[in-house]
Each structure stands twice: as C-alpha cells, then as structure tokens.
Design goal:
With about 230 residues, the protein is mostly helical. The protein contains 10 helices and no strands.
Length: about 230
Amino acid sequence: MIINPLAQAAIYAVVLSNVISARLPDNENKYGYALYLLAGFTAWTLFSEIVSRCLTLFIDNANLIKKVSFPRITLPAIVVGSSLLNNAFLLVAVLMVYTLLGHDLSTSMLYIIPLTACVVAFALGIGLILGVMNVFVRDLGQVTPILLQIWFWMTPVVYPLGIVPEVFQVIIEHNPMYHVVAGYQDALAFSRAPRMENVVWLMLASMLLMLLGLFMFRRAAPEVADHL
C-alpha cells in the first residue's frame, strides 16, 4: 500500500515531469510535479481502496456471513479502519519524501484531517451500495474497476486542471473527487488552505450517500446471506 502509489508517482514524475511541471500553478520548486503527484495519489489511493474492498466485501466473506452470527456492520468498519491505517503510513512516507525534497511542512497540512473524513464517507457510501448490488449482479464486480480507472483519469491527479481544454474543465469541475484531490494538493503540495466550500457540500452529500449505503446494507443483509 505504500510502495505501489509511491512507485506509480515516481514513474509518472519521470515520464511527464518535463511536459507538465512548468504548467503547474505556483510552481517554484523543481520537484513541484512530484509533490503534486504524491498529494493526489494520497487522496485517490484511500478512495479507491475503500471502494474496491467494499465491492467484494460480502462475496469475500461469504463463508463467514453464512455460518457465523455476528454484527455484520463490523465488516465495513474493518475495511475503513485498515484503509485509514494504510493511508496513514502512506501519508507519513509522503511527508518524509517532501522533507527529503526540501519542501517545508506547514500548518495547512492539517486540512488533510477533514478532507480524509470526506473521502472516507464518500467512498464508504459508494462502496456499500456497490457491494450490496454486486452480490446480486456479479458483472458489477468486473465493470467497477474499469470505471474507477476512467474516474482516475477524469480527476486531476496526474495533470493540473489548467492544461485541459475549457470544455472539459467544466465537466471535471463537476467530478466530486476533483474537489477533494485539489484540496490535498493545495494543503500538501502548495502549502495553502484549500477551498473548503465545495468540500463542505461534498461532505454533506457523502453523509447522505453513506446513510443510503448503510440502509441498503441493513435491509439487504438477510437476502445477501441467502443469495451467497
């Protein structure tokens, strides 16, 4: 969980640094693109891990669900807890890389706390809904990773929004993950306070989405056990 995103960021940095680095906003650091990439990967890795693990949560634990009586809400709780732990280790590694590259740590990085809460709520809501549906429509498990890849490239993780044609910028700005990833990049790479007004609206929507996911999870629990 630590080496993979760091390695991906390093590969993108080597391949695309000369092309994109000069087009980053407020880029005064020769390692600015690497810093930008690491911040975006930190946000996206947490989101994709929770969604991907929740997608197969019930199928992977079919024997446990069918044979043992236990509070099933612990299953998504374990996913969230372990994903947060992995992400915490990744964040520590990213901050160490920042320090090695001469990037000063600032108080703006504390914005990562509410941003992380937003990512978790959003990912858990989507993950639970997809996880319940995947029990009954197994093809969903094959399609979702492809959709996540498309979503990744529709989110300015590897590239800054400014290099995209204006017609596509409007579309990307309606991408919920854009605001969270941009917040990570502002707080970590650019040492400035992110624009939290869009994140607040996303947090409210994420809470509703998470409640919907939990509702579907509780209502479908008996049918899930029978179907598995």
